[in-house]
Amino acid sequence: MTIDDIIDQLGPRFAKWSLLHEALGTASTKQQEDFDRLHRDILSLTDNHIDTLKNECDAVQQQCQQTYKAILNMKRLMGEYIDDSPLDSEARPYSLTLDKLNAEKDIVQKHYEKRLADVHELYQRLEEYQDSLGPFVNTELIIRTNVDVSLPTVTALEEEIRRCENEYVGRAQQVDSGAEQVKQLWASLDVLPQSDLDHLLVEIHDSRHEPDKKVSLYATLVQDQQLDHIVQTIVQLEELKQQREFRKQEIAQHLYRLWDRLQVDADERDLFLQLNKGVTSAELQQYENELDRMLKLKSEKVQDFILDARNEMENLWNQLYFSQKERDAFALFESDAYNDTLLEEHENEIERLKHMVEDRKYILDKVERHMKLLQEIQDFEASTNDPKRLFGKGQRDPGRLLREEKFRKRVSRELPKSKRDLEGALREFETSTGTSFTVYGEPYLDRLMADDKNDQAADTQSQSQPPTTPKRFTKATIRPPMTSPRNRTHAKMNFRTPQYNRISNLQDSISETKKEWRRLDSQVSSTTSVLHRVRQNNIRKKDQSRTLKSSNKIIKGIKNMDTGTTDKQLQKDQQQKKRTSDRTSSSSGSTLVDKDYALNENTAPPNQTYRSPILKQRNRVPRSLSERHAQLFDEDDTTLDLGIFDDGPELSDMSDNEL
Questions:
Q1: Where are the alpha helices (DSSP H) in 496-612?
Q2: What are the structural domain ranges in the chain?
Q3: What angle do CA 628, 518, 508 make, to 5 degrees?
Q4: How many CB atoms lie within 10 A of CB 501?
Q5: Adjacent-strand bridge partners of 438
Q6: Where is the signal peptide (predicted)?
Q7: Which of 130, 387, 629, 659 lies 20 to 30 angstroms, CA to CA, from 412?
Q8: pLDDT digit string, tens, across residues 38-55
Q9: Are the C-beta atoms of residues 424 and 437 closer than 8 Å to each other?
């Protein structure tokens, strides 16, 4: 129905309403008031309908906004990029928009709930680790409302779970190692578990091959409190073990000393040590019992021990060069009250003397060495004062004098060095201790200085006294040589004046040769190889041979034309050779040494003397190494078979041979 239809229906009704008022005779004012009331009722009814529709529209629009916000929130929690722009209010009709939004919300909610289930599983695992690891777990990642299921959040949860797993595994390993260590300490100390935690450690150690059972035990033992208790238990057991070991070692030291004093058999000692190797309470009690038994035996033989201690004390006094006053300082040495207290005092004094010997060892060795040298000198002087030691019948010793001389040399070498070392050690001792080192009550440094003064006085006195036996003048006897005469060779007759032409500086030539070889070796890379040079030499010889053949042909033709001229030339050449040979024979006689020169060898030969070819060869300028090296490849050198490098005959050679 349209508005026009409504108006058409209202027209007859208003006409009927007017007829009814006319029939009633209603006044016009009252009729107008009734009409106004009817109009207001119609408008009110229409407004009520409009308000109802408006409320419905607003409700649908608000529902669309809420659905849209829910979709945006879920997408945001899933980590998707969204546009924060509000929903378009012009998107009508609202019912259709609401249906679309609800459909989209259902799809987004399914994805969100799927991810939320995975996140809840991660939350559950973190809560399980929180029960075991306590504050180690980061619980801030667990969110109860508006759970973020985005990829970064899931990654952070997985990283936290992985960190907790590593910590859990590390603590589980600590529990295993702690249980193993506690079990070993209990076995070595013979201790039984006492607390509930100790029983749990025993149980987890026994179930090391049952993983499922160990997992349930780990949940309790990996907690911080339980781990601290395990560490504390290990520390207590180790302290107990260390105390027992110290006590055992202390008893063993007493036992070794008592065994040595009582001369216990070595097999008996080894058997006792082998049977009591551990640190259990029973084995420690065995050590205590053995010590008590040895002490009882010691008390029975305390007098013998005291006498042995006194003998050892006397040996230490002798090593320290104590005087009688220093020895009397230990008053208990003469005591007759033989008991354990007296023995203990003697042992303490022996320990003190041993420490003193150890501290003074560096100076005692030097004093002993010096005294030994002095005693050797005294014995030597006593033996050499007997003049009949070398001539006594039955006492002949051919090497005695040699040994005595060796002894004198050794003493003259070692005694000053020993004095220097000893003096330095004595002064160092005085500086460090503030007291002098005494030998039998006297400062040994004073004795050493007094001996030096006596030696200097004796040397001065021996130098001032004249010799008792004067020197006798004995005429020197001229004796012939004890060896056979030797054949003497006279000096060669040489020029005594400078003859530079006869000097061959061989050293300079050698040095130049070496330098030249080094220079050539350094230039090997830049010079041509031997094969190239030989090949070039062969090619050059071939060219010369061809030139020689052609010149021979020309010469043959000329000879045929001028035979007489060549005969005359040959005669001239023979005469020239004869004059040269005569000159050479005359010069050979002049090279001999003249009579004047033979009489006076200091006279140099005259300048006009003809030099022989040998001397000329000596005076030639030496060739450099490069020239000698090049001479190897001279054209006239036939020492090398250069034909092996030949490339074969050329066409020009073959044509010449055919001609």
A1: 506-522, 530-561, 563-590, 595-599
A2: 18-114
A3: 65
A4: 11
A5: 443
A6: none
A7: 387
A8: 888 888 988 898 999 889
A9: no
